[in-house]
Known about the structure:
This protein has 307 residues and is α/β, with parallel strands linked by helices. The protein has helices at 33-43, 58-69, 118-122, 131-135, 138-153, 171-182, 192-199, 204-214, 252-265, 270-283, 297-303, and strands at 4-9, 13-18, 26-31, 48-55, 73-80, 87-93, 96-102, 124-130, 157-161, 187-188, 218-222, 227-231, 236-240. The protein contains eleven helices and 13 strands. The strands form two sheets. The protein has a nine-stranded mixed sheet with strand order 5-4-1-8-9-10-11-12-13, with helices on both faces. The longest helix is centred in the middle third of the chain and has 16 residues, at 138-153.
Amino acid sequence: MSRIDIVSIGEPMIEFNQTRPGEPNYQQGFGGDTSNITIAAARSGAVTAYVTRIGDDEFGRMFLKLWKDEGVDTRGVSVDHGAYTGAYVVTHGPQGHVFSYLRTGSAASRLQPDDVPAELIKQTRYVIASGISMAISTSAADAVLAAFDLGRASGAKIAFDPNVRAKLWPLARARAMIQAAAGSADFFFPSVEDARALSGAEDTDANLDWAHRLGAKTVFLKMGAKGVIVSDGTRREAYRGLAVTAVDATGAGDCFCGAVLARLAAGDSIWEAARYANVAAALATTWFGAVQPLPRAEAVRRLMPRP
């Protein structure tokens, strides 16, 4: 079996993104944080694979074609003949983008530890999942932890993005499960909003300290348009956001995660990877949708500022 750089595990969702605020105009696309991460990493040159369940429906088949077109290994994708592929709608207004979901009982929510392909995990260098991967069901949370256990046992690095969604689970359970996942993470990717909600602290240094106390070795604190702060427990570096004409931030944080892992797989340091991913994430905001604007490596390189 060929070597895989990154295995991502979680929930893909069909996207309907409003292109004119207040009007019934929607662009069909693809989403789901871990699927976005996988595609972002592939577009930055990594060899990727995805682990999930999809429905035996047109949406599921659209995803299979997308992943094939993007070069994503789908040996870990199971087709569930008794459930559907989830979807969501993005609307835009003065307060930013708002998500509405159709995911209860979806195929991905029926993911369980037996769906995790041990041989695929044993061949990878990085395993990544998110809080959403764990929040969609108890069995999916167990599958994520099983994938992390398999990855660690075979020498893979573990990456985790908490990506808190209050509608999916109570904050107390989110804190407990995210702590369990982050405690084994070599790379932890909280947004500043998630870190504040989970830690109860407002200060960025306090949030970084909190993340390291959980057990996370390297922390990428995503600051949105302001950029990112990276900490390895000893050194901390801030990277300012790139000035772009942003129209839709959907998937930008996912892009950052995928781009970081792709560059780490290519041999970059965490600092070099963050610098690259910071630009990639900015570019991901310049068009509508989670997947369509995910940049390829050549586009990122053209806009990277000099060190």
